[in-house]
Amino acid sequence: MFLEILVYGGVASAIYAMLAIGLTLIVGLARVFNMAHGAFYMLGAYGVFSASQLLNLPLGVAVGLSLLVVALIALMVERICLRPLKGSLEGTLFITLILALFFEEIIHLAFGPAARATPAFLSGRVVLGGTTVPAQRMLVVLVSIVIILGLWVFISKTKIGGAILSVSQDQESASLMGINAKKMIVLVNGIAACLAALAGILVAPFLSSSPTMWVMPLIKSFTIVILGGLGSVIGSIMAALILGYSETLVAFLISPRISELVTLIILFLVIVLRPAGLMGSKTEA
Amino acid sequence: MLAAIVIAILFAIPGLIKDPYIWGILVLANIYAGFGVSFDLLFGYTGLAVLGFGLFVGIGAYAAAFLNIYLGMPPFLTMPIGGLIGALFGLLIGIPCLRLRGLYLALASFAAAAICEKLVIVFNDVTYGREGLSGLDPISFGSYTNYYTSLILLMVSMGVLLVIVKSRIGLILKSICDDEPAAQAVGLNTNRYKLITFLISSFMGGFWGSFLAHYMMHVGPGVFGLHMAITIFMVTIVGGVGTIIGPVGGAYLLIIMNELLRGIGEIRLLIYAVITIVIYLLLPHGIVRPLIALIMWCIQKMMNVFGIGHRGFKSNGLSDNQRSV
Questions:
Q1: Fold of A2-273
Q2: What was the ipTM of the complex prediction?
Q3: Using a CB-CB distance cutoff of 8 angstroms, which residues of chain A are in contact with residue B234?
């Protein structure tokens, strides 16, 4: 029981971390609250489903293709909707939410309301101590750790990463130093969408895909971003662990039916009691 | 003047179109218009982006369902009580959310609505979970009376809201929307006014929620959900944010479009979503105001052609409308 909670909580945290890190980066960089973030997760899951099941492409190609498609969609969203709305917080919030509904309707139209299942990328089970875990779930944890480490190296060691950090600290000064802030925002938007899509792709085999699957991941990623402190990557990882493990604990010890309530209650309490989150110092937004 | 003509047309519809089916559709338009105008007071006037507006609708709807099914109360009692319970939740949510704005207010109110939705699903022995409660008493037994009830209630809601927003309170709400610290600096207790807004808006949301429950004779957890909230603010954005009249136009457009596109099938909300985004990007004040301006312009042109004086028309039509926004 203890081991199971440890493993399944880890799997949930890994998914949440991937969902939230991109979002917290773009929030820190451009103060854009993109409610279509959950839709990218859904599009990733449906992308890999249609590429691998309907077009019978090999798995690697299917994953690459769906990431590419989601990245392109994210760039279009940025260009058509987010950029003209710059500065209008409520406008961005509501328009991106309507966009998410738009994607839901498109998926609904293309695949119908029923849930679709993608076969596991890795079959078999992994024996961990006294418990066996499906290999697919361990894959999620592994990929998530690799991606997060890679992202950390990218941001802290490369020139572009430095540029991103400087834009998030002070956009104007960064622009004066010759950094193209707009390009950085576009880049991070793309990275955020790809991370969400990757999370969607990885969970597609064990959480079947349905047109409304974007709602809870969206709320969870915002919960994590706020709990962690807007723009703080470390805070987001901590918050993802808190959320993942508290949900798993409730699911195992009380009932899986109320595990989603945990997120919502955490979200409400954090906003009302400590809007700055764990690592944040700013209370704006 | 124009408003009078529109109201006259709305009241004459059952006489002009003798099709109870159409009346039924228009009742739905009136209900969504009711949600839209209540939401507009919160969002359009006071700038409170309450994403969880479905909370008030859902609380009102479930309150009416419980009172009607378990206690046997008639609709004319359950609807005001539903509104009052909605207002109670408006206070419960409004007080902790007073200092929140923007994303935080949106997410906190959404969380509250979603918590209620999940609770309704969890306590399925009284609420029948996802299935929802069926068999509420209808508003009335004739589609004719249904239509007039909804229309009169909508007129009353709009009237009350228009009186509020044209009074001193409306100005204060606008000032909170534009610059809250400045409003506080001139000595206004902005929290009190925000709470009043929450109270009025949630009462109306709950009231129309109960109306919806009785009209559909069914209530399910979906009323709390994100889709209800998105539909309500799409109606508001399309019609015109901060106009009170606007959401009515938006609701009628949504429902009429829904009907016209019924043949095409499931792409209805898709098209409405696209329309909403395009309207928001191109006409941020919605369609109703430009539409009124266009009609007034046409009338004026026609008056000029026929050589009739146009001053009276201009002053009590267009300018009256501009004063309200």
A1: ABC transporter involved in vitamin B12 uptake, BtuC (1.10.3470)
A2: 0.83
A3: 98
